[in-house]
Specification:
Elements (H helix, E strand, L loop, with lengths): L1 H9 L1 H24 L2 H5 L7 H11 L7 E8 L2 E9 L5 H15 L6 E5 L2
Parallel strand pairs: 2-3
Antiparallel strand pairs: 1-2
Length: 119
Amino acid sequence: MRKVLDFVKANKKMIIVIALLIIILGTLYFINKGSQSPTAAMFSTQDKSQTEQKLIGILGNIDGVGDTDVMINESEGEITGVIIVCRGADNIMTRSKILNAVSTALNIEKSIIAIYSMK
């Protein structure tokens, strides 16, 4: 026990600096981890399938659609649902264009496509 106390007394400044660095790094880690909203994490570009990315590109080029995000749900290789979130979804004509485009592009029933307005 005496050796530990002697070591701490001899290296007091170094121990304080290391402790402060650990506290700062831990704080930065938790601040950055909490800064990404759950929605942003769910819709991050890295996690998008190639089909989702293509669909975002197609829908973004349709007049009136604007910013777009897409999530495709699959079960055993079959599409079970599609969620579209975009700026133009408030307009009924734009919604109709989106519905037709997604249904045609993915060869799916319109009933499994949900379209929501982006805030």
